[in-house]
């Protein structure tokens, strides 16, 4: 497996993990929203119940109804407290899910940057290899051209031309 395909495989796996982390964040946010809404409803219901029964207690209420009310309000308070703890727990879960998602996003970004850098390095190596081939071709062409010009006069024609070009004559 080549380095490029290995990196692409890693990138795809990292993207899948990021997508799963995003889905986890969405689920955690939805659960928190639902729990928060339920907590609000419980608090509102508790307030309405206390207001309604407060008026009735002013008018005088038998003791057994007061005891039933106190038991009901106690269970309602317990439900409000439990729901508050659930909201706190879901807030922590959402925070952890967001941290995981951020880490997954950073991993994807790092792999994408690494792949881009490797591709740029490959492109530069290819350009250098192509330039080297062009330089070698030009050198061979110049040598062949010079060799063809000096073929009639031997090496002396080549040496005279080189000397003239260098200003030695």
Overview of the structural elements:
- The chain has 3 helices and no strands.
- It has a single domain (3-166), classed as Helix Hairpins, CATH 1.10.287.1700.
- The chain is rod-shaped.
- It has helices at 3-58, 63-149, 155-166.
- It is mainly α and 169 residues long.
CATH class: Mainly Alpha
CATH topology: Helix Hairpins
Shape assignment? rod-shaped
Low-confidence stretches: 152-158, 165-169
N-to-C CA distance = 61 Å
Write the layout of secondary structure elements.
Layout: H1 3-58, H2 63-149, H3 155-166
Helix pairs in contact: 1-2
List keywords for this structure.
169 residues, mainly alpha, Helix Hairpins, 3 helices, disordered C terminus
Short description:
92% of the residues lie in helices and 0% in strands.
